[in-house]
Batch of 4 targets.
Target 1
Amino acid sequence: MLNVHVRINDAATGQPTPCRLRICDQAGRHYAPLGFSPDFPRGRNEDVGGRVAIGNEIWFYIDGWCEIPLPSGMPLVIEAWCGPESPPLRKEVTLAPGQMALRFTVERSRDEAPPGWYSGDVRCHFLSPHSALLEARAEGLSVVQVLAEETTFAAQDGLSYRITPNLLAFSGQTPLLERPGTIVCVNTLNEHPVLGRLALLHCHRPVFPLTFGGTESTDDWSLADWCDQCHRKRGLVVWVDALRPDAVVPGEGWADLVLGRVDAVEVTPETIRPRDWYRVWNAGIFFPLVGSSGKDSNRVCLGSMRTLAHLPPSTPFSLDSWIEALRSGRTVATTGPAIELEVGGRQPGESLDLAEPGREVEISATLRMVQSVSGHLEIVVDGDVIARQAGTEGGTKVRAIRRFDESGWVAARFVGANIRNQFAHSSPVPVSIRGQRRRDAAAAEYIQKQIQKTLDWAMTHGRFEKPRRRDQLLGLLQQARDALNAG
């Protein structure tokens, strides 16, 4: 075994480039850089960062070079990954006796990505900000939001404590760490065990309390309180683990979504549920989709689901401009592929208003990706696929002409053979006729039922010490029901 110097260079600059690295032999044995071990904890909040286990594959994050003890005279497989916008590197090598260096070159290119698009992960936990920065650069991410979250820590003294990792690193509207093209911020995840979870991004200071309810406190608060305080601080509210059809109590998020207090809905690899989004859009309630990995252990890759946000022409990339792109709905939630959608000259983040029914609208979607992945690019109108084109590489296009006799919406999506690893979905483009948005009665009735379940919980199971706080929550839920009835 020799300590071999491994270097991965960017083909454009000739300089070392951050990447995710994997080296193994034919028997499947993995070799770790000095300072690491191929055996590491993989549970939630267990020394998260710097390495990741994807199935049986062990990967390590490096900033472009490392030293690894490797055997000579034995075939080795070396792989490097620099994000979905770059072709992966895979080489088979055999070290000669005494060989102590390996050099490889990767193509780090954004040529296949639409101009003005920047990717980010809107939620991860427990990584140190420096680990998040390294992993973001290796995974091709422009923005990473590390969210401080209250959690339980079992100490060696036999007691359990409530802790909030990374809270002291809170940065809000200012990048905590930054390298050219990459920003790391620390914000908060706020949670009630029944009413739901919110990612509060881009606040100038934390919104407390971070948690309420459960067995340790009363329910004398609401998600709406968090939303309002976040917005007063110029923040962005993302509904986490949203629209769950299997929830016994659907949560307050439904009402806050109807009332416009929620700015965006999160998509993770575990929560790809287009039918649920479509049902809400059919009710005339439109929201942007944002992607996140939800990374909280060394089993999850940062950016495994990500947000592509489009900045208007001549708008320079910054944390502020990226957040405003999310707020406006110029987004795609994706595992990697990029989708451009145009509806009668409008794009996600804009709406199309027709002067009268019966107008025909030209719709086009373009898929761009470096990786060769099998799947279909589809145009979706009011929940139905109206056009489809097989797509295996960047540049796939699909077009359609749609006659709108009533108001509706349009989105585009890419679905591969493995939806958790091969998926992309744009935010919707609402299409209104004479200013009237689509309103499907069955969809509105479904949302009514979800809000009613939460209202029933508040009246029968909520633990309120202050009656006015119960009344405020009931009033909020009823306000949302009235808004649905009013159309």
Note: The chain has a mean pLDDT of 95.
Target 2
Amino acid sequence: MLQEKLIEKGKKYLANTYTRFPIVVTKGEGCWLWDMEGRRYLDFLSGIAVCNLGHAPKSVVEALTNQANRFFHVSNLFHTEVQIRAAELLVEHSFADKVFFCNSGAEANEAAIKLARRYSWKKYGEGRAEIVAMENSFHGRTMATLSATGQTKFHVGFSPLLEGFAFVPFNDRSALEKAISERTCAIILELIQSEGGVYVADKEYIKFIRELADQRDILIILDEVQTGMGRTGKLFGYEHYGMEPDVVSLAKALGGGFPVGAIIAKEGAASAFEPGAHASTFGGNALACSAIVATINTLIGEGIVANCDKMGKLLVEGLLALKRKFPFMVDVRGMGLLLGIELSIPGELLVQEFLKEGVILYATKGNVLRLLPPLIVSREEVDLFLDIATRVFERQKP
């Protein structure tokens, strides 16, 4: 009863921008959440690919607590040891030379867009500012990132969008080559279109993009807001493709659940940013950077990325076995622990059925169940999910 009353109060005071689950979360630990009534839920959403280390990870809690006892924020007019260490770790473990910190995925993509345009402007002057993006993509909710998003449903009611973006079908080399012109400064894409239905970029397509970008001197921006920080079974998604991008945007799991964003870039691209060219008041604050340091050290030092790869393969194996049993399962796709189950029936109905069984997951594109468990998920928890999925799917039989 208290939970229902609180939900009604939330509807009264909170902007109506989310369709929320009918529970009030009071606690999280590992791969589990508890509601106000004490019911436990297996979390296969992870705050939408945020809680890669699970809920309340000890290393991040300790890092935040220790830093909070020193200071929260001093502005980027000062150097701080923790910010330098966070940047050092990102550079040491990636292709990049430089880091810019911000607060979210949308801000990271906004910074990447600005960096690409400024890089081209400094080198070639005006008129070379167009960015080629992918149909079915998602890059954020700011006006620039919304304009770069290739799904019209997100555009409704926000026209006019910003100029300077062209769109091509995902994984279509011919269309991409035709879209590149003397006005193009960059290509932006996700390696897995998660919000778009969990579609994975072909390896040959990414290789082609790198070759094309090198020929035309345009930047490759990879949106790794969801695929970064171990989610695909490697620390960064681009590592699966045998290529190096010019700029990568990061957020979501970068701080182990604490809000933070960043772009990492090669020196040639990053040098386009000079003092005054771009900034973020809270970007790289001490609390956020302490969370980044703890997150990266934990991911690497405790074998969590390897666990993601192992559990992802186990989960796919189980899902494919279910697909052979249930004809409404059209496809199983993804990488690591970013997986999608395409259905021939509405996904939202199944989301509610899973919730009744004590499992939290999400549907995108209407009929794709998206699975995003914490990377610390155990074999027992994967098996439990598959058992529950079997029960839920059994109820859908005609």
Note: The two ends are 35 Å apart (CA to CA).
Target 3
Amino acid sequence: MAGGRASCAGFGLIAMDFSPQTNLSIGDDIYQLASRLFPICRSITGPGVRETLAVMAETISLAVHDVPSGRQVFDWVVPPEWRISGATILDASGRKIVDFADSNLHVMGYSIPVRRTMTRSELEPHIHTAPDQPDAIPYRTSYYQPNWGFCLAHNRWQEAGDGPFEVVIDSHFHEGSLTYGTFTHKGTSERDVLFSAHICHPSMANDNCSGLAVLAHVAQALRGRTTWYNYHFLFAPGTIGALCWLQENEQHLHRLDHGLVVSCLGDSGGPTYKRSRQGNAVIDRIMAQVECDGRKASLQDFSPYGYDERQFCSPGFNLPVGLLQRSAHGSFPQYHTSDDNLSFITPGDLQASYRMIMDVIDILEADYVPVNLSPKGEPQLGRRGLYSATGGHRTAPPDTLACLWVLNLADGNHSLLDMAERSGVPFATLADSARRLREIQLLT
């Protein structure tokens, strides 16, 4: 049996929308939100995270949670809050080689404060470039080890001269808090679904302004909809934020039936899905059924490297949570560089990712276990208008075949998702056939 429920008594009252959406207005709206989030300087703590949540709160009503610096969270400790006001490298003539005001990728995340005069050889170990992408600024962090550094285009550093250089990083740490946001859409049951996107990356459009913006609009779409599941949306800094949420909600995790971590949803690649640690959870099976721009996801087995699915799937939790992306992280040259900008994502690709997640929700809500009310022999579909009046055809029409599959497998042991996997018939087609069979009282 597929889902966290054996049947849904009120299923007939829930309207599912499996139709493709061609209007790009939702894609434009998602892109607009991603564009507003893009320039904000985010890290795992600090004002950038709170500013990001404030912008997202204009789309959905977010609950904001603060976890104090120094709090023990399983094997981790919430770090001090980091703030940065500016940073520069000046050459011997006073020319700016780097200015943090030009790009918030220019300073390694969580850099300690620096004010020094340095030779090129002294500064070199603190310079990060991407020689294979000489005009791109790489993204680097050092959250849990005191360190500092600058990130700049390789060509820019090659042209910088021998120094000496005036180096300034105006940053500071204080005992503040880690902040994350949540939104919950209440369903009619006590069973839960989780959608999660990391909020800590600065000025990278695909990773992960796209995920934040797509999930915000998915949450918005649920507001006027009656659902069986409760849908929880988590927008938290990577790793430590997810761990804070897990610790805070540990007593409720037994209700979590399905989950998706999302990132990199704005490019034209993929889609790519990494299975949960369980390997055959319902969400893993659903992701094998849905499509994005007419393409089914490339399925990958679980590995303990990636995004926050690592935390949800750690052995002490082992939750049914997978990772959805378009192009997989690290597989596209723009990844973790300044080339991951707003020209790399498109409204159309964002909308296709949004539609894919909405299709996942449609299947979660529509999946149930039907029972054939006329199981002895095949019911006469012709007199009910569900079978061709003339025989002898080589194959059955798709709608008829779907009805036959539903009736044959509706023995109380197979859900619609089970039937889709067994028959190869799309879930939406089977769900529509089951609806028609219920209407003529052949199915309950």
Note: The two ends are 16 Å apart (CA to CA).
Target 4
Amino acid sequence: MMIKTKHIALAVIACTAILSCKNDKKAEEVKEVVEVVKEMQPKKLTMKLEAKSDSKAQGSVVFKEIDGVVSMTAVLGGLSEGTHAIHIHDKADCSSADGKSTGGHWNPTAQPHGAWGDATGYHKGDIGNFEADASGNGVKNFSTNEWCIGCDDKTKDITGKAIIVHQGTDDLKSQPSGAAGARVSCGGIIM
């Protein structure tokens, strides 16, 4: 709520300044205020996941960036009961029937595959595992300051990548991808 209040206050200041502008200097100041307001707005991406590899797995993912932290909520259905891996892959290309057109895990810092936060290394796309219930439904929540939405840092920017859900469990150690099995659902992270 505090963020929205700040945004509203800044927008009011910008509008007031625009209405009272009498010279180019004030107009430039207004542009700067408007840019600050835009930068403070939370960034949000919503995407659909489509079934791959002859599965029925699908769902949606929402990414939000607030104050330098990106949160992800994935809501999935049509899965088999049990543990499934979810990763960010290198390309937002879900065109192939098996999801392999997305390439490997997103790994801009050239680290070994592993559990998120592991001292021995992990890919920026190594989100981990989640559980699907007896009805095939699952939810994965995740947040980090190591991602951004549409920023200029290629080691953090998740746009242009893809979310992949796997049939099996990521063992968090097998190289290069955790031996998680078939890619059963895919969605491009596109602005």
Note: The beta strands are 43-51, 58-66, 69-77, 82-89, 126-132, 138-144, 161-166, 183-189.
